[in-house]
Amino acid sequence: MITTTVKAKNNAIGDAIRAAYRGRLTQTELAKKLGVAQNTVSRWSTGDASPSFDDLAALERACNLPLGWVLRAAGYVTETKTAADAIAADPNIDSPRRELLLATYRAAVAQSAKTSSAVAASNSSKRRKRAS
Q: How many other C-beta atoms are found inside a 10 Å radius of the C-beta of residue 77?
């Protein structure tokens, strides 16, 4: 049962990884960008292995993906678990890196909230102008 669950999670991650680089990079090119072997990217893509949190962060940068998308694809974030919860609970992240990741995540959330507010205000203003 556990093996099946892990394999299903790895397959979901593999699907997301393939979607991220397909049509833009080869596995070899992605591996070079990530600093891993090509067969590592292949194993992630087929669901035979799962990338570490650091590998997921590198994947985010290499494929220009939103951090939330990568974390959700990897199962670190669900409807009830935020990225901050996942970062705080991951025993593979040392304390200084954890603090940096949490600060980065919180700053991204704050920036996203500001952007959303600005867009909402702009849309509201446009609707008022059209109504006049």
A: 20
For 116, phi then psi, to 5°, come to -60, -40
**How many domains would you assign to the chain?**
1
**What domain range is 16 assigned to?**
2-131
DSSP assignment of 38-107, as one string? HHHHHHHHHTSS---HHHHHHHHHHHT--HHHHHHHTTS--SS--HHHHHHH-TTS-HHHHHHHHHHHHH
pLDDT digits (tens, 9 = 90+) for 55-107: 888 888 888 877 777 777 666 666 556 667 777 777 777 777 777 777 777 77
CATH number of the domain within which 29 lies = 1.10.260.40
